[in-house]
Design goal:
binds glyoxylic acid, single chain, 11 helices, globular, binds manganese (II) ion, 15 strands, nine-stranded mixed beta sheet, four-stranded antiparallel beta sheet
């Protein structure tokens, strides 16, 4: 591969070093946990600030702790490049940080060469992509897009801390959130480099891929209300066991998703039994069904079926049922011109552009409310993600940074 004068091994080694350094910022010593507006978010934001300053970017921070590194251009428009620095619980280290680090290294390339472009560059380190703390998510990028929903401020985390309170504890003021929004006149486009989090690129033997769209996603909170009782005394046929009902709903979601033959995926990864005990029949259970699809129609049909069959399960078991939608995002297409730009950049670094849809969610879903979006995927080993075994090689990451630099060179706002 011959990407001109760019030192790809050095870019890859630097990306890996920065990502590993960031991975040491964790709430727990033996696993990576860095949630939105936590003390670790603060420490990670401080680290990103130093890196951006070293890269000669002008650094600021908004009301939700999003760090912004700006490199001025000759024109008013800005190319926004970002990703996230929050993580899931027991995370891998590449999901999010790669995109932030790639943005810093690419911006540094232009800043240190003293090369003025016709547009400015803003590198954005968001911190609410994973939704690991609050049931609603993407607040950081929604604020940047001018689409923040202020009712979210009253939503509470598992410890009862509202988003409004968490913002205050982080040293910020929710009243400043509107000032985080870019104007449509300024934001030319939003682009993001991210690990693929799936096996397609590895299977095709390609280090980089151009993202065509981001899947739509719904979270249904399914609450089942039965009757708590003694595990030793209540006969099996007289029970109203909310957890047994929940188990049926989990298997229902799996069966219905399998029946779509790949069009819809559904997952129950979170279940809450408020009064869990081994000797108590569960009286109350809440579970979250995460539903995703590249087709909004297929996702909505799936939801209707899931709700109808969940009602039947609840009726059969004499359980109360409350279903609420806590997240709902339509499929987000990537802009065709930006896709072409990334395809040309992949070619420029010696790759063969291939296009693929993202099954994972990204900040681009929120940023698309502001401006055109584009994404570049990087191969990750075994397609493994949301897992400490997540891995992208320094050589693939170096190629991704080089491709991002080539993309910026070809970008026209
Ligand atoms: C974030 O990684 C998501 O897709 O849930
Ligand atoms: Mn991510
Ligand atoms: Mn993730």
């Amino acid at each position: 591969m011959n990407p001109g004068s760019l030192d790809i091994p050095s870019l890859g080694a630097r990306a890996e070093h920065m990502i590993k350094t960031l991975a040491s910022v964790s709430a727990e010593s033996n696993r990576l946990v860095r949630t939105f507006l936590s003390p670790e978010h603060r420490d990670a934001a401080d680290l990103i600030t130093r890196w951006m300053q070293d890269a000669e970017l002008e650094v600021s921070e908004d009301a939700l702790g999003t760090v912004r590194g700006h490199w001025a251009g000759t024109g008013k428009k800005r190319l926004l490049i970002g990703s996230h620095i929050d993580t899931v619980v027991d995370a891998g280290m590449f999901d999010g940080p790669l995109g932030v680090v790639a943005g810093i290294l690419a911006a540094e390339h232009f800043a240190q060469a003293g090369r003025k472009l016709g547009f400015g560059i803003d590198v954005l380190a968001f911190a609410d992509e994973e939704g690991a703390r609050y049931p609603v998510t993407l607040h950081s990028s929604l604020a940047a897009a001018g689409a923040f929903t202020f009712t979210s401020l009253e939503v509470a985390d598992a410890d009862g801390v509202t988003l409004r309170e968490a913002i205050t504890r982080f040293g910020k003021n929710a009243a400043d959130i509107p000032a985080a929004a870019y104007s449509r006149d300024t934001a030319a486009a939003y682009v993001e480099v991210h690990i693929e989090q799936g096996p397609v690129l590895e299977h095709r033997n390609q280090p980089l891929g151009v993202v065509s769209s981001i899947a739509g996603q719904t979270h249904l909170n399914v609450e089942l209300l039965g009757e708590a009782g003694h595990a030793g005394t209540v006969p099996m046929l007289l029970r109203r066991d909310a957890l047994a009902g929940g188990a049926e709903v989990i298997l229902l979601a799996e069966r219905l998703a399998r029946e779509t033959r790949g069009e819809v995926v559904a997952t129950v990864g979170h279940i809450n039994i408020p009064a869990a005990a081994s000797n108590v029949i569960a009286g109350n259970v809440a579970l979250i069904v995460d539903i995703r699809s590249g087709s909004d129609q297929a996702r909505l049909q799936f939801i209707e079926r899931l709700k109808a069959e969940t009602r039947s399960i609840a009726e059969k078991r004499h359980l109360g049922l409350l279903v609420t939608t806590t997240r709902d995002a339509a499929m987000t297409p990537c802009n065709p011109v930006l896709q072409e730009g990334f395809a040309a950049a992949v070619t420029a670094v010696g790759g063969q552009p291939m296009y693929l849809a993202s099954g994972a969610g990204h900040d681009g879903t929120a940023m698309a409310k502001l401006c055109p979006i584009g994404m570049l995927f990087v191969r990750c080993r075994g397609g493994v993600s949301h897992n400490p075994a997540e891995y992208a090689s320094p050589s693939d990451m170096g190629l991704a940074v080089a491709a991002l630099i080539k993309f910026i060179e070809g970008f026209m706002p």
